[in-house]
Design a protein that fits this description.
Strand content: under 5%
Helix content: over 70%
Shape: globular
Number of strands: 0
Largest sheet: none
Distance between the termini: 27 Å
Number of helices: 13
Amino acid sequence: MDKINQGWLNGLIGVIIFAGSMPATRIAVTGFNPEFLTGIRAVIAGVLGLICLIALHQTKPNKPQTHSLIIVAVGVVIGFPLFTALALQTISSARALVFVGLLPLSTAIFSVLRTGERPNLKFWFFAILGSSFVIGFMLLHGQDQILAIGDLYMLASIILCGLGYAEGGKLSRELGGWQVICWALVIALPFMILFSLYSLPENFDQVTSSSFMGLLYVSTFSMLIGFFFWYKGLALGGIAKVGQIQLVQPFIGLILSAFLLGEHVSLSMILVSCAVVLCVALAKKFA
């Protein structure tokens, strides 16, 4: 298998793993507050990442690489998990997955900004059109509000995640895919330990086994293992090309939300997801 196909395969495996993140987070926040969930999932993944780095005798990143790793940590270790957990307190995972349809576009834009590429006007036309579908969906289905607070949290999470994906994909060409997420987790580990202790619940009596299972999934798979494949895929196949695979994530996630959580997946959610997929695909074509 050539390098490009390896990149696509690794990217696809990563996206399939990530697709379970929204349903798992939705389950986890029924027992844990969003702040503690964000902190403890990063602590668990960070400890596992540290063990991997030590066991495999990895060289410490240099100063410029460390700066990039801080950006990765802010985007995918702190920002995306925190804002999605906050969002999923008030909106369903199915609704949140509509916003995930914007993640490929966010990744593409930050990839352009970080690599200095200059897309033509067709790219920006389809980028804006895709965003307008999501904004229109929010305005028409705002849960008795013009703009639900959960929607704002999801928009923030998508922006930060796109930044973390693009930065991590670029850095993976130097450090390696799994090394990038492990170092980012280790850099964030001291802060996340303190954050977990600060947001520690008074007791865990009301935490169900389902919540613990959700925590286990987002800690080991969403926060760590998925990135092993995802960043390797971006490094091998290119951020712009492999980033396309994210387009299948909302559909897989919607199916999981329906089967695991019994959530209603409306026709409008499906149509918006399809429209965003089409617009992002065309935007990437002209990037």
